Amino acid sequence: MSDDREYQKFLEQCQREWEARCSRCGACCGVVEGDPCEHLRRFKKGGYYCSIYTERFGLHKTVGGRPFRCVPIRDILHKSWPGDQDCAYKKDLSK
Ligand code: SF4
Ligand code: SF4
After folding, report:
1. First-to-last CA distance in the chain?
2. Each residue of 9-30: pLDDT tens digit?
3. Model pTM score
4. What is the pLDDT at residue 93?
5. Model confidence over 56-81: pLDDT tens digits?
6. What whole-number distance in Å separates Cα of residue 92 and Cα of residue 76?
7. CB-CB contact of 21 with 27 (8 Å)
8. Pocket of ligand 2 (CB under 6 A)
9. How many structural domains compose the chain?
């Protein structure tokens, strides 16, 4: 395997591990506030997912019509939002 290919696989593995940390609580998508993003969906067994995940960044609106900008979670980890005490990424940071 070439160095480039090996490095690419390493990056993909890092990405998978980062994504897997999310507990799918939906808090960063507004579920605790009661007016979530219109693209947020609930799994039948509990937990949430984004119906446009690969295209999620940018301007969207809540179910109630409030506009907001979806950004990478790493960009808001220093901020607070309702329910953020359950965010797996924030918990990792506080270890
Ligand atoms: S677009 Fe962003 S805020 Fe909306 S459900 Fe997807 S990840 Fe959450
Ligand atoms: S608040 Fe954190 S753990 Fe919950 S869905 Fe958002 S990124 Fe995932």
Report:
1. 36
2. 999 999 999 999 999 999 999 9
3. 0.89
4. 82
5. 999 999 999 999 999 999 999 999 99
6. 14
7. no
8. 22-28, 73, 87-89
9. 1
- Which tokens sit at 24? 């799918």
The span from the CA of 29 to the CA of 66, in Å, is 12
Domain of residue 43, residue span: 3-93
Longest dimension (CA), the chain: 51
Burial of 92 (0-12, 13-18, 19+ CB in 10 A): exposed
Please tell me if the CB atom of residue 22 comes closer than 6 angstroms to any atom of ligand 1.
no
How many whole angstroms from its chain centre is CA 33? 16
25 lines ligand 1 (CB under 6 A): no
Q: How many other CB atoms sit within 10 Å of the CB of residue 59?
A: 8
